[in-house]
Design a protein that fits this description.
By secondary structure, this protein is α+β, with helices and mostly antiparallel strands. The protein contains 5 helices and 21 strands. The strands form 5 sheets. Strands 3, 4, 5, 6, 13, 14 and 15 form a 7-stranded mixed β-sheet that branches. A 6-stranded mixed β-sheet has the order 7-8-9-10-12-11. It has a 4-stranded mixed β-sheet with strand order 17-1-21-19, with no helix packed on it. Helix 3 links the parallel strand 9 and strand 10.
């Protein structure tokens, strides 16, 4: 008489939440009075963009909407239509704006902050594929008054004060980034000190203090790419000022583990520290290829600035292995181990592996298939056979 055999096939649940990270590259660039007729300089900007591969670009000196349309058509969307522009202010020339990658961001709202000179637009975006803990962020673009008289400095402070007033209405969780051409002449200037010392939601400058026109600070400088005057009217004089910035609310530097400034990622593209008071094409450039240095020289009198943000991505789940239930069998029976109820929430299962955990040893046929089998061996007493499935 055959003895009864209990076959136990446990349901093995492999269900793990996996949290990844991704990185966004943000670039600030004053593109020098850019309008719809600036097709030659658009080619040079494309060379720079193809090299940097930014996900979001904060812009200054867009002369007209046809300028940003030209950037989209001739620079960012030559091969596809991944990039879009935020709405531009309508009240003045030399506008500020953004261009962003639509595969990375959704633009949810915008706001124009009026100043005595140029509006400071703010664009609120949510990050696609971000974990639910990652809050929306707002990108501001500012172009403050130029020139170095006391009156000019006072006006820059007045313009920055308008942003201060707006931020003071936000709660402490407000995440924002301020990029721009601030035209400040040192870290002791009132407009700069207001931005980094006095905002109700603090702003941080990743590279901090500098002194203009001093060689020891040259790696922080962003104007000019040229030592001589070109026909586009950009500034000459070589590299001796820091005008262009990306500042982060302190959530990015200290408070928020799910969206952070990537330490060490702040860079002035093309500034190798060896061109103090020189043109970027005066001699070799150790930070970028010659073709990029040439493009930077011809595209604008400003160097672009980049920084990177790391964020937590949406959770994914590992496959769920379902090995079936228990059943009773007899000596000589062929037992099918069926994993057909297993599934992968993110797609298709790519592998199966059956193994025996306990009981008299058996040979599992097709152990790497969705359905495996074995034959109950000769035994002298009732036994438990336990198997598991891993996917």
């Amino acid at each position: 008489m055959k003895k009864g055999t209990i076959i136990k096939v446990p349901i093995l649940i492999l269900f793990c939440l996996l949290y990844g990270q991704d990185t966004l590259t943000i670039m600030n660039y004053n593109v020098l009075r850019f309008d719809g007729n600036t097709t030659v300089r658009a080619k040079h900007i494309k060379t720079i963009v193809d090299y940097v591969k930014p996900d979001l670009i904060i812009l200054q000196e867009i002369d007209h909407k046809n300028g940003i349309d030209l950037l989209l058509s001739n620079v960012f969307n030559v091969n596809d239509s991944s990039f879009a522009a935020g709405p531009l202010p309508s009240t003045q020339w030399m506008k500020n704006g953004i261009i962003y990658n639509r595969t990375k961001f959704d633009l949810t709202s915008h706001k124009f902050i009026s100043t005595v000179l140029r509006d400071i637009p703010g664009y609120t975006l949510s990050i696609k594929n971000a974990h639910s803990n990652v809050l929306p962020l707002t990108i501001f673009s500012a172009h403050l008054k130029a020139s170095d008289s006391l009156d000019d400095s006072d006006q820059r402070w007045i313009e920055a004060k308008e942003l201060y007033k707006y931020i003071s209405q936000m709660d402490s969780s407000y995440h924002y980034i301020l990029g721009g051409d601030f035209n400040v002449y040192g870290s002791d200037e009132p407009a700069y000190k207001l931005l980094v010392d006095s905002m109700t939601v603090d702003l941080e400058d990743p590279i901090g203090h500098w002194v203009r026109n001093e060689n020891s600070h040259v790696e922080k400088f962003t104007q000019s790419t040229r030592s001589e005057q070109l026909s586009d009217g950009g500034a000459s004089g070589g590299l001796d000022d820091r005008f262009d910035f990306i500042l982060f609310s302190d959530h990015f530097t200290s408070k928020d583990p799910d969206m952070k400034y990537l330490d060490g990622s702040y860079k002035v593209i093309g500034n190798d520290g060896n061109h103090f008071n020189k043109s970027i094409v005066d001699g070799a450039n150790s930070s970028v290829p010659d073709s990029i240095a040439e493009a930077l020289y011809l595209a604008s009198d400003h160097y672009p600035v980049i920084a990177k943000v790391v964020f937590t991505t949406k959770s994914t789940t590992s496959p769920v292995a379902h090995a079936g239930g228990d059943f009773i069998a007899s000596i000589g029976d062929t037992i099918l181990l069926n994993g057909s109820k297993s599934y992968d929430p993110n797609g298709s299962i790519v592998s199966y592996n059956w193994s025996q955990l306990s009981g008299p040893s058996v040979v599992i046929e097709n152990s790497e298939s969705i359905i495996a089998k074995f034959i109950v061996p000769e035994i002298n007493r009732t036994s438990n056979f336990v198997f598991q499935l891993k996917v």
